[in-house]
Predict the structure.
Amino acid sequence: MLKKYYNLFLITLVLLTVSCATKYHPPKYKAKGVRYGKPYVIRGKLYYPYTKISHFQQVGIASWYGKEEHGKLTASGERFNMYDLTAAHKLLPLGSYVHVKNLENGKEVDVRINDRGPFISGRIIDLSYAAAKKIGIVEKGTAKVKITLLSESPDFYQVKGERYNLDKGNFAIQIGSFKVYNNAYKLSKQFRNSRIEKAYIHGNTFYRVQITGFNSLEKAQKGLNDIKYRFPGAFIVSLD
């Protein structure tokens, strides 16, 4: 029995030694200003996300995700909204913005990285439903794209050297979505500044009720806070 425990001790010691001796290093990347963050493991593969990178371009396959993940937490800690212009990338800094061009039809969209993925071989970016719709890949499911980093920092949005104020724009608060038009109409009549938007999602027609008239994200957030008690599932959408 003593010999048995001694052998177990030796095996454990060897495993600990091997574990301590194994060191993982981030891959070398030749772009300027690269700084790596804390690594994470998905399906046994180690990824070193960038916390800072001043230049990045990538060509590959884009896919998209929608209602199956709608409302779930993203890697950034916010709730995924399939109607926002966001995307998932394995390495780019969370909060940074990228330009996505569909190389098959020339359509373009700018998105904010707020999640990690896609973890399917050959795919480089996972777009929200809204972003995928803008560049025409919803029906097909995937497309070959080119992505280009727009901002050197996740703290501001910069396109061709010009910084944009993301707080300014045209925003609305979505308070309901119905398959029956009359239900959407009844709700919209309760608000002076409202509209009904028709949407086609996976072959189904939905009538979305939105309160409009917010020219800044701050005002839209205040409006959301005022009606959240009546519509706990309400959220802000950009109309630009």
Remarks:
- DSSP finds four helices and 16 strands in the chain.
- Residues 132 and 138 are 6 Å apart (CA to CA).
